Amino acid sequence: MKILLITEQHDAQWNRVSFETLAAAQAIAKQASDQKDSSVSAVVIGKGVAALADELAGYQLDEVSLVEHDLLEKYTPDGFSIALRQVIEGAKPDLVLLPHTYQVRDFAPKLAASIQKGLIGDCIGYRHENGKLVFVRQMFQGRTAADVVFTDAAPWMATFQAGAFRADLAAKNASGRAPVKPVSVEIKPEQIRTKPLERFREAKQAVDLTQAPILVSIGRGIKAPENIPMAEKLAKMLGGELCASRPICDEGWLPMDRQIGSSGQTVAPKLYLALGISGAIQHVVGMKAARTVAAINKDQNAPIFEVADYGIVGDLFEIVPALIEALEQSK
Ligand SMILES: Cc1cc2nc3c(=O)[nH]c(=O)nc-3n(C[C@H](O)[C@H](O)[C@H](O)COP(=O)(O)OP(=O)(O)OC[C@H]3O[C@@H](n4cnc5c(N)ncnc54)[C@H](O)[C@@H]3O)c2cc1C
């Protein structure tokens, strides 16, 4: 199987999910039935990114394609999909893999449509089965996982969710370096229909949740901002900090720097108490390293229970006041 990995960088800084997808690409190639004919090549796209291509050449790859163009300096969906279509048509891979980032979600469907191929997005795993590559993706907020296969001819395109693979397992090349091949692409200014403005930057972190030994984390199950003081009280009584899943921060009920997950903070406290959090993979990657996870959720099938050491199936509005009362009595 010939795999082409499309990496992501911004201002010549890696998006580290690229290396998670590299680890996935290497593992898929290693386990493919035509393992001997398998190869993994990577693409670095942008402008002024030759140093990144050189860094990537130190990994176990067959080739690194360096795609640079003035019109690729700033990301645009038109520029990236026009350039990458030419790269794919030239490289003729069986499988194109991308990290499931905001940027990839923006251009990958357009790229897939331009080569008239399907795209399996947001995968969390894969397996080789009867000579076919089966992708696994979550559905219904992680309540169930679906197996998805391509039925048409290669090239196939798939994206892997952040946290699905370990970047530190991306294999380096012990004995040499992959060749870096500059690939020229044709893009005309009139083909770019959007004008990129300043990139959105995450809010600066005011609290360092990584240092808190106990975290009480609230999810959409908390229902309304008026209910947050109850969770805050519990956090204080336990000597911990309050944090949240993303929807709570998106709503502005808690500041962004209290968000846990793939686009928030990654924490490893002694105790992580999840209140009304479903346990979507993007949340779990940020807290699964906690020494003890306790979860309260009224849905017994909520995926959070898969990572919980202690689980209470029940209504947090009954259980949290009871916990507070018990803590008050034990003072
Ligand atoms: C690119 C990308 C990045 C993302 N990054 C993050 C991230 O960094 N962090 C993050 O958290 N999410 C992130 N998400 C969102 C993520 O996919 C989920 O949508 C989100 O984590 C769900 O939050 P939740 O569990 O609070 O809400 P829901 O999924 O709505 O779950 C609410 C839970 O509360 C339970 N509940 C309801 N009422 C009660 C009650 N009275 N008592 C007890 N339980 C109750 C329900 O059973 C349910 O399980 C990201 C998504 C994408 C696409």
Order of helices and strands: EEEHEHEHEHEEEEEEHEHEHEHEH
State the secondary-structure class: alpha/beta
DSSP, total strands: 16
| Gyration radius from CA atoms, angstroms | 22 Å
Low-confidence spans: none
Describe this structure in words.
The structure is a single chain. With 331 residues, the protein is an alpha/beta fold. The chain has two domains: 2-191, HUPs (Rossmann fold); 209-329, 3-Layer(aba) Sandwich (Rossmann fold). Helices cover 27% and strands 25% of the residues. The protein is built from nine helices and 16 strands. It has helices at residues 17-31, 50-56, 77-91, 102-114, 228-238, 246-250, 281-284, 304-307, 316-329; strands at residues 2-6, 9-10, 13-14, 39-46, 63-68, 95-99, 119-129, 132-139, 144-148, 156-160, 180-182, 214-218, 241-244, 271-275, 292-297, 310-313. Strands 9-8-7-10-6-1-4-5-11 form a nine-stranded mixed β-sheet, sandwiched between helices. It has a five-stranded parallel β-sheet with strand order 13-12-14-15-16. The chain starts with a strand and ends with a helix. The relative contact order is 0.12. The chain binds flavin-adenine dinucleotide. Flavin-adenine dinucleotide binds at residues 141, 219-221, 245-247, 259-264, 276-278, 280, 282-283, 286, 296-299, 302, 315-317.
